[in-house]
Amino acid sequence: MAGFIGKERHSIDDKGRLMIPARFRKLLEKDPENAQRSTSFYAMKAVDGSLELYEPHVWAEKEKSLSALSDFNPDERMLKTLMYESLDSVEMDRQGRIALPRDFMQHASIEKEVIIIGANKKMILWAPDTLEAMLSENRPRFGDLAGDYFTSRNRNANDV
Length: 160
Known about the structure:
alpha+beta
């Protein structure tokens, strides 16, 4: 099934609630992996200053990798600590809104407006000014990044 695709601008209300786009909510209803029609997401502070929203079954795959890390290896333990410090669970209400924790909004510099980008298995939330600055800075690199990525992927696929 196709994932979240597209970009929308939404307002944050006075209580810090964000409306999940209707087209993304419809995907949640149709998703066969979302058999219980989950109304929760895992929210994560990303290192680039954005927030990411994951459905529980998608986060469960990431959780397997984290669980495999050793608590006795200092680097792996630190990674787990950093990941879980950046993670929270948010519930979607009947109107399709989620309440973003204040520290998450501060992390992403989100105040009244947010850009929601559907990125297949997750939604990425950006403060509009932060997103525009990041895109402006990196737009000239797009051709090189895409060329490097797709060339190396094609090379690896042909090596198999």
